[in-house]
From TrEMBL, chains A, B:
This is Homeobox domain-containing protein. Residues 1-34 are annotated as: Disordered. It comes from Hibiscus trionum (Flower of an hour). Residues 30-96 form the Homeobox domain. It comes from the Eukaryota. Belongs to the WUS homeobox family. One of its GO terms (biological process) is plant organ development. Residues 1-17 have a biased composition (Low complexity). It is found in: Nucleus. GO terms for cellular component: nucleus.
Amino acid sequence: MEHQQQQNQQAANDIQDGSGGGSGKGSFLCRQSSTRWTPTTDQIRILKDLYYNNGVRSPSADQIQRISARLRQYGKIEGKNVFYWFQNHKARERQKKRFNTSTTELHHHVPMQRPTSLTLANNKFPTNINSGYSPSSSSSTGVLTVGQIGNYGYGSITMEKSFRDCSISACGSSTASANESLSHNFGWVGIDPAYSFFEPKRFIDGIHEEGQ
Amino acid sequence: MEHQQQQNQQAANDIQDGSGGGSGKGSFLCRQSSTRWTPTTDQIRILKDLYYNNGVRSPSADQIQRISARLRQYGKIEGKNVFYWFQNHKARERQKKRFNTSTTELHHHVPMQRPTSLTLANNKFPTNINSGYSPSSSSSTGVLTVGQIGNYGYGSITMEKSFRDCSISACGSSTASANESLSHNFGWVGIDPAYSFFEPKRFIDGIHEEGQ
DNA sequence: ACGATATGAATGAATG
DNA sequence: CATTCATTCATATCGT
């Protein structure tokens, strides 16, 4: 994300122990050969391309097959990886948005349906996530228009992070009003502290065993 | 926290690294200090308060907004910081507990990178967060905090989208092989407008193999 | 300075 | 589609 961290660890493909027998995760050097898919840079690039430049959000099973087949040349990959990738990418995008926007007026769905494309003339649906994105219903509507997507080049997808700003507001008051005591005025968090009752699950710490 | 280590260094400061000429690590011109959020003591205190005294473990997006807004008084913070904080705190607590639980001679296979048993029994409960305020029985002084948020400097977070993507896709053609992304027609992705929906379950299920 | 540890951030995989 | 868990990377800090 902000700054790719483990993206460089697997620049080459063939990360995960492609060796059939194995599970030789113990191998030094190649860490991560464990169970989880480690996308290569090429794979990620293509996935993002599909996501941002082609509006692919929830590819159909069929598309997933094709995509994974295509990505397989850059490294080991399975259909589910593609599936999860899109799911996660989309979910996190939305989630982040949710963190930082007010909830007071949350309109759940803006019934904005992306044109079934094929209009190729004025077909200019949001090319980047910043612009209005089509909420729901983007699921595999025939988005692609095999003909031409136009929009080559990543001119717009560069949302980057654009560091908030350099202003470092002090917000002094180190101890000024940092006195939220607690147990009483947490209305601002949304929990209801007014009653002494509490959720057994939450408080009884040693019990809720999340085996999972 | 576990045993506060940097708790004192940024007591009031205006968020880490005033840098400027600091050299050292920052040394980036305007880059408001490091890339990563460094919670202030007040922020941590409140977070722990919520965690231990109010049972907040996985705040909803809604709560995250409120919390981060509230914490912003004490320093720069974004929703994702709160989100990650709770995620991490919960996860690590669980991790530690895991060790503790299997106190039996589990010596074999401890893939953990850091047992970190050092601060184990120190602070896993509401006992003392650090500051000297009394948690549960805080005589409910009219704290009022919620009512008026100072909100000094930045009224608007304006944190753009703050997304990933910067990593590779944009212009860095690392391996040069995957060049079809931009100048390609994605016909290979297939456009199956007809049946669009796709059962994840079915797909995932049949996919769960592969492992080799 | 280094090495170890604590912890913020990211993301694959699941589950509801 | 939302949430959560597990893992892992990255970096700030501290101890020696």
